[in-house]
Amino acid sequence: MQHPEIESLDRDGILALQRKRLAEFGQHLGRCAMWRGHFASAGMKPEDLASPDGLQNAPFLEKSVLRDHYPFPFLTVEMESVMRFVATSGTTGLPVLFGMTRADFEELLPYQMARLLTAAGVQPGARAYQGYGYGLWIGGPALDQGFRALGCTNFPIGPGRGDLAARWLKDHAYEVASMSPLWLMTLVQAAREQGIDPRRDWALKTAILGGQSVSSQFRAQLEAEMPEGFMSQNIYGTTEAGGPVLAISTPFTHADDELHLLNEDTIITEILDPVTMQPVSEGEVGEIVITTIAKQASPVVRWRTRDLVRLSPRPYDCPSGRRGMRKIGRIIGRSDDMIKFKGVMVFPSQIEDVIAGVAGVVKEAWQIYIDKERVTIGTLTVAVEATRQDNRPSEQIVNEICREVRARLGMAIKVECHPEGTLPRYEAKAVRVLHRPEA
Known about the structure:
Elements: H1 4-7, H2 11-29, H3 33-40, H4 54-57, H5 63-68, E1 82-87, E2 97-101, H6 102-120, E3 127-130, H7 139-149, E4 153-155, H8 162-171, E5 176-179, H9 181-193, H10 198-201, E6 206-209, H11 216-224, E7 231-238, E8 243-248, E9 258-261, E10 267-272, E11 285-292, E12 303-310, E13 327-329, E14 333-334, E15 339-341, E16 344-346, H12 348-356, E17 361-372, E18 377-386, H13 394-409, E19 414-419, E20 433-436
Parallel strand pairs: 3-4, 3-5, 5-6, 6-7, 17-20, 18-19
Antiparallel strand pairs: 1-2, 7-8, 8-9, 9-13, 10-11, 11-12, 12-14, 15-16, 17-18
Helix pairs in contact: 6-7, 8-9, 12-13
């Protein structure tokens, strides 16, 4: 354990620590006019977070509220104290900026990231290929800080340059890679095209994969392409949380396809029914809602991530000895990405589960197209690529996907099968659902 004095606490110990820090956090927010106004909308003061039911009664934070306070929403320190800004992707509007003080970036972030990376199996001194993006996106800088805290040798290549990266994975003997799972699968193909066999020629032991959640079948296929003993670990976080700092899978949770919420001493994570906004029971699906109680600049209180996840049926039962921090399943989807198609609710991850089990299909390249009628969805089309290597007839692929979707989800869809290399590749977060005019 990276921080045994915290990671070995039982649940009561974690909750006691949260209550203490939540009271201090409320005092911090009380000095910010924007936060005082936000709490006043619920008839509260930030200092009320110190009461036993303070957080449960606090108002939720939505993206629309952040945008109402553009350009620096809920910045709780003077601008001179902000070391740098990070931003959301802005896929549904203007990006939202979040400040980080020197303590946020150089103390809190390494503390959180080192714990996650250690739990995932990253060893001090390992050679690390950092493949997440930079600029205003927090992904790359967060992994840099984690690798620095562990004393790893970091190669901050970032996304892209696939042919070169596939070669460097062999020549530089990277032991750790951090990137999107789809990009790593793309690098496998790029290596093979150069005559490089990842199983024989790469030295990867661990991959820290994030940006999108993938099925256990896709993960198993990815691991089968890698050297003996390789294990992929899924990391999860958000810009609003301060980076990919919320949860990670570990050798102890890998078989159950679960992640561990390992930073609950600095981030309070609620898993709430998205309709009633009440806590879900063990084994039930809820939305992740976060409160960043240790962040100085741009903290959030009850931020609705819209990410849906299943709370583990045994959230505190882990052979690692971590007894106070809960386990969750992989991200199922987003409450605002859910598709209602002819009365059936479906998530893109459910379509991915089907594609991952179909032979002769490129696993990292698929798309959902929505063709709208006047009010409801007219047609839902899944586009895939057939692998050149397998040379499986397109008709077989189309028929199998249609049959499996009907069997699992009870709905009829259209399927397009394209030659390999037709559909977009995503170096970071994949955009799976696209709308187009109905033909």
